[in-house]
């Protein structure tokens, strides 16, 4: 039921700051406006709400962007969120696929050309998709960096000036992206250098992890989820890279052929044996995993003549121990942060137990003290005074009003008073929790206290003035 003399506006509010179009506007103008809307700052996005303090600063930044060149992509726009997601996906594929093509596919290609000189090597279906779709899309994403604004991490300033954007990109990741896009037009004669140059995509791992964190936070997930995904992704990339190099380096050191005493020949996964690339990869992965995590020495072991294999496995084992310790430290940090309030509560509860034993309190009083602590802190300890001391007076008043909202709704006097007066009254009160059978007040002649009761099923908290 609507309130009398109150108008509720049902018109859709446009928060993008673009001029309205007439009803008879052409399709071209409508399409242009939608594109401009996707390129400018989206005040309703989660990332914008995290970065900006209030909506007025969003609108001011939006107007600043709309006054600039129309081709500049705002870092907090809807289009940029999509661009970051596509970039994260493509470069993750690159970091996993590039080592595989550098090692297993390259070795098989060279062997096939030696044994079948009159027949061309037939590439797999994924390489066709990669060549005709994924690689051109990577080139488009690289060009977009020239027209996408960025946030200066030092000053927290949003840069949308074209010259500053170009200068920043040219001095940071342009050379890396340029080397990655050099593979265009040279697919016909695949060389060793092509595969090795494409490994430079690993230097973009930091950007991928940054975009991954933004996506996790935009979905309103906890930051601990990003930490777990980050550790899993880095572990996967490390194991995949070690697997490919473990197979590729003996072949490269043997002048593009596996020596007779190499582990690949002993495991019967060299190209001469006709084993599929997938089986050779799984054999190499099994050996890397057991040495990386210290689970054993694998199915094939080592021989005295193969010193290169021993050297590679030593590097894998040392880095595996270091990475395992780092992962354990990160996991312990996550759990310590998540459960810090519960740990503090258990610590204070233990202190209470020692205090009660030292004072030799009766069992009835002990039970009442434990019940009081459980209700007051709800199994989570927090220093309310320390938190309130860091807040402004306005925020403290807002928190007190919110905490006493049920009491305000029950007391008729508070309903008639202005909000500022109610806030002043509440801020000058103190909250006391009483247990069942506790005496709240006694009849006295000069009792000037005003007691406000908020009765519930569990207990009887009240505010004493």
From TrEMBL:
Gene Ontology biological process: regulation of membrane depolarization; sodium ion transmembrane transport
Regions crossing the membrane: 85-104, 133-151, 228-249, 311-335
Domain of life: Eukaryota
SUPFAM superfamilies for this protein: cAMP-binding domain-like
Transcription recorded as keyword: no
UniProt KW Cell wall biogenesis/degradation keyword: no
Key words, A-Z: Membrane, Transmembrane, Transmembrane helix
Name of the protein in its database record: Uncharacterized protein
One GO cellular component, as annotated: HCN channel complex
GO terms of molecular function: voltage-gated potassium channel activity
